[in-house]
Design brief:
Elements (H helix, E strand, L loop, with lengths): L1 H23 L8 H86 L5 H20 L2 E3 L12 E7 L9 E6 L2 E3 L2 E4 L1 E6 L2
Parallel strand pairs: 2-6
Antiparallel strand pairs: 1-4, 3-6, 4-5
Length: 202
């Protein structure tokens, strides 16, 4: 009996020690539900912050790309416009050179026509043929934008007239063209050849 009581007493002492040890053990704060919830909240906030930064970076990159595309598009539009202008200018310059070379032909045809009209031995049919050729050639030039520069009696304009001499004249006012020596022509707004004129002295 004494031995059994002794064993029971030992068992009770061990249980008391276990209870005391359990009471003395501190609970890890990280293992508490509140701390776990707070930890998850912090992690979610960090993740949301990362996603927000990545989203902002993506929006910025997208805006930069759109801006680059717009600039490239504007550059392409400018290049196309410049190319069209250069092509149009090249065509106009080519036509300008051709028209300048054609003017002496027109002058000679006009002189031949005036000579034929003044010569009574030239048949009228020949005169009419020359007139028809001259008229057709002049119409073609007009269709391309060529026109004669007004000279006789007009105020002298150094942009359109080339004065070779000054003369006294009672028929025109001083500073005006007294006589046209050679016709001048222009192609639209550009001068092909200035008119050679005599100017009334002021």
């Amino acid at each position: 009996m004494t031995g059994k009581k002794g064993e029971d007493q030992k068992r009770e002492n061990k249980e008391k020690q276990v209870e005391q040890t359990a009471d003395q053990i501190e609970v890890d704060p990280a293992d508490s539900p509140e701390e776990e919830s707070q930890k998850e909240t912090n992690e979610q906030e960090i993740l949301d912050g990362v996603l927000d930064r990545e989203g902002n970076n993506w929006e910025q990159e997208k805006e930069e790309l759109i801006d680059k595309i717009k600039r490239k598009q504007a550059e392409m539009d400018n290049l196309r416009r410049i190319n069209k202008m250069e092509q149009a200018e090249a065509r106009e310059y080519a036509l300008y050179d051709f028209l300048c070379k054609l003017l002496p032909v027109l002058d000679n045809l006009e002189r031949g026509l005036e000579s034929a009209r003044a010569d009574e031995d030239v048949p009228q049919a020949h005169v009419e043929g020359l007139e028809m050729i001259y008229k057709q050639l002049y119409q073609v030039l007009e269709q391309e934008g060529v026109s004669a520069i007004e000279a006789a009696g007009a105020p002298f304009d150094p942009n359109w007239h080339h004065a070779v001499m000054e003369v006294e004249s009672d028929e025109v006012e001083p500073g005006c063209v007294a006589e046209e020596l050679q016709k001048g022509y222009r192609h639209r707004k550009r001068i092909l050849r200035p008119a050679l004129v005599k100017v009334c002295r002021e």
